[in-house]
Fold this protein.
Amino acid sequence: MNQNIWKYKWVGVMAFTILFINYFHLFEINIYNFSILYLLSSKIELTIIYTCGSLFLLLLGFTQIFIPEMIRDLSNYVLPIFTNYVINQLVIPNQQIFMAGVRLGEEVNANPNLLRLPPDNNIVFEEEERDIRIENPLNTNMQVTTLDHMGTDLTIVNAARCSFGKKKEIMDKSDEKLIKFLAKHGHWSPFGHTSIQFHIKAPIFVTRQLGKHQVGLIWNEISRRYVDSDPEFYTPTAWRLRAENVKQGSSNETIKYSIDMHNKACLDIYNDMLSKNIAPEMARMILPQNMMTEFWLTGSLYAFVRICKLRLSPDTQWETKQIALQIAAECKKLYPISWNAFFSEEIETTS
């Protein structure tokens, strides 16, 4: 800009010279002979001519010096700011809305009932629907299946009466009282003569929590060292917020958060590594903790009682609790009297 000022300095000099002469002219100072126009014009006309000429020269200097600088500033500073505002406030939100609409369209095509209103025509708010989903274990892809079992409630009774050399063929009321006595006073060895074999499907982070239970249990888990099929991911329908007064755990408040892009990226990278002949035992490193895994878990009734005693407590992580609830339901079917002896109160299967 300094070069432009020196380049057009004559414009300013001429403009201020004319204004200077016009100043003396207005106050009738006798210097009109500086201008040829004095011989041709009256005092008023000469004042108008001087004024217009000086304004023209000032305008010429302004357009030659300042306007290019203004244009340069607009291009260097104002336009980038405006461009970023348009992209962040208009383009990206509209793109997100478009992608959400695409995903919704895919879900509707897969399940047309999603857009149907309830029978009473009352709209279910998204927050309420989300809270209902998270309290319903049937909406998760975590599963507990009984493969095999050994013994009944009568097996436990006969194991307890072994000390007296007695054995019964049919249960009666006295046997139920005996089971309650054993459970109440911690005589656990008779319950160890039973065996249950489960096939469990759960996310890795849930499986690792359950893996802390080792006493009286046998584990065998699917290995990604040998299996390279497409992994399945556990995706919550809502994300719980951190609890304010609990060091470990979460509150009942939830928000929406999508990890679909993360899941897809992990799957794409995994398949790309396999396509380059990278060993599955190494490619599995990039798979996240929300990947589903499957394992066999075999143990005695008392071993599963210990699991459920701990994992059905109020401070248990919700996802782990869903597995414990299904284990409890299966154990109660197989050993109803013994299970009720340990859990006198009804366990809510939807908590």
